[in-house]
Amino acid sequence: MKGARSNVSGLALVLAACTAGAQPRPAVSLLLQDKSVRAALEAVRRSEAATIEDQVRFCEVPAPPFGETARGAVLRRAFEDAGLRHVRVDRVGNVLGERPGLSARPRLVVASHLDTVFPEGTDVRVRRAGTRLSGPGIGDNCRGLAVLVAVARSLTLAQVETPGSVTFVANVGEEGLGDLRGMKALFGDTLKGQIDRFVSIDNAGIHVTNAGVGSRRYRVTFRGPGGHSFGQFGLANPAGALGRAVARISEFRVPRDPRTTFNVGRIGGGTSVNAIPGEAWMEVDLRSGDREALTSLDTSFHRALAAAVSEENARWGTPRVVSVEAELVGDRPVGSVSDAAPIVLTAVEVARALSLVAPLGESSSDANLPMSLGVPAIAIGGGGRSSDSHALSESFDTTDSVKGTENALLLTVALAR
Asked: What range does the domain containing 125 cover?
């Protein structure tokens, strides 16, 4: 026990050097000299095959939007097996496990999302061909979940102790219409006021996301009188109004810098081929990393809906008209952390200390929420290479994937100070 305490004190002094104003790179280099940290990195390397097996195992448990419970139960057991304490599930389905430090604060949260974009009933079996794994969600975000567990397990095996505490979270509600409900519950209820730093492990690669792309998502419903396609021909048609709206949206001109995008992702409605629909709907995604650009796009979108309805009603000129309702079903805030922020500099230096390059970038992730609240937050990849994210053909190349696991572990230790 004396040896362990002596080692803890040394690690605490190394980490304290960061907060005392030391430059990030020397502090991280010193961290690599600590016996327990080196042991944890070695544990990561030895267990990468098990990490990949976890990635496959997690992925073959369905986790459709709002249906993460089964996968959450698997992660709860994995957290317990990794030696985390006070493992529990909060009111929305986030799975949490604690790794206490010498003090309760600062508290670092390391999270990975449980959910996928794929609906219930999707075949989630994973296929293997050499170093390539193929299956829905295998990169986004089964890789993140596997790395999350590997970091916790390796810290336990090496008996690494840190000045601050780390909470590991497998969260719900990142994809689709989840609207960051996991993060909103975490920061607004479960750990309200207790989170000092936040890292999301999301998908593959080596990178640091310090700019959060905001989004507004709408379910748009066009309604009209409906009727027989022959007998009531000439009525204003909700599907016609929807089509006019899609045509107008497709002609939007948006800036490339800041990158701003739009997408009509789903369309439905009607009851029969020979019936004028009483209702037609679509789901639309608007995105930008700039608040003003997103607001401008949002304004153009609502104008397009109004114009489409007006055109459809004018075309048929009947008193029984089409109307439209746009329900905001997703509102992901824009957020960012300065390139010079300590959490960003530390992440870049951690990668460099491991002979890796971690470019800065922007994306839409769980980190958006803490960024918007002013909490130091970034998202990182879990190593390896993924392709075709959000498609049934999604795949992940395990070549050198261990580098992502090493990076996540060292970053966790460096930020738990």
From this structure: 2-212+335-415
